Amino acid sequence: MNVAVVVFPGSNCDRDVVKAIKHATGDEAELVWHGETELPGETDLVVLPGGFSYGDYLRCGAMAHTAPIMADVKRHADRGGLVLGICNGFQVLTESKMLPGALLVNRDLAFICRPVEISVERNDTAFTSGYEKGQVITVPIAHYEGRYHLPEDELDLLEKRGQVAFRYSGGNPNGALNDIAGIFNEGGNVLGMMPHPERYSDRAVGGDDGLPMWLSIKRWIERTGA
Amino acid sequence: MRYGAEILVYLKEGVLDTQGKAVAASLTRLGYDDPSVRVGKYIRVEIEASDIDSAKETFDKMCKDLLVNAIVEDYTVKVEELR
């Protein structure tokens, strides 16, 4: 599969994603500078990595949505292409309106960096077929602004449409509404999540519950050819 | 003509303002009786515009395009003509 990992000024998990994908699937992911106006021609999956894009000034992810590459990332998503935003990447996706909602400062005003348990809400998607529905996996979080928020009526709609991808299980670390740790767009081809699957993709670094995600994506791309 | 704007950005009513709550707790420790606190942002912008109405329109557009996240934030804009 062809993966483009967008590098914003301040991204710091970009190379971790490249390594995780290489380790899990054997594929080489390509780093794409935020100033580019086009994704590489054959891109299957775009990853917006964690970090502090544009220093997180103003709001997390707010300025990244003005980056030149983002117009083509949106086009890619509109065509049904896969987009995965991890942590700061999730914030970029909400600020870009590619996903609903917003990420606010954690309930307890602390930066949290530790493994957490999350439940896999759906396994019929491009990103999660390698898991069991309802499976609880352990993946690390590392964020100060990860409290998912959406106005109540829209939250109901999100739930009804089955757009919740992951929920915190065994304790909500940041106060996110409905324990939400990750969501899909309506088409299911865009996923934003606060936990970092790339950090738990190799047992040598603590755990590999993130690994099935990369394998799910690769399988989906091979099966659908998109 | 040059115009300046004082833009105040704050969390909407009903959105939990954790920073406001922390500040309120500190004020309470100092002996202030049950203060309610909301913490927001002050943004100062200056631009060239033909008249005050078009300046206001531009400032408002800036808020919608980038400065404010309408899902969780509200804002006010105070515009002044500069020399």
Give the tags.
heterodimer; A: 226 residues; alpha/beta; two-stranded antiparallel sheet; 5 helices; 11 strands; globular; B: 83 residues; alpha+beta; Mth169, Chain: A; three-stranded antiparallel beta sheet
Q: What report would you give on this structure?
A:
The complex is a heterodimer of chains A (226) and B (83). Chain A is of the alpha/beta class and 226 residues long. Helices cover 23% and strands 25% of the residues of chain A. Chain A contains five helices and eleven strands. In chain A, helix 2 links the parallel strand 3 and strand 4. The termini of chain A are close together. The mean pLDDT of chain A is 96. Chain B is an alpha+beta fold and 83 residues long. Helices cover 34% and strands 35% of the residues of chain B. Chain B contains two helices and three strands, in the order E-H-E-H-E. Chain B has a three-stranded antiparallel beta sheet with strand order 2-1-3, with helices on one face. Chain B is elongated. The mean pLDDT of chain B is 96. The A-B interface holds A 58-59, 62-63, 66, 94-95, 100-102, 104-109, 147, 149-151, 175 and B 11, 15-16, 18-19, 22, 66-67, 69, 71-72.
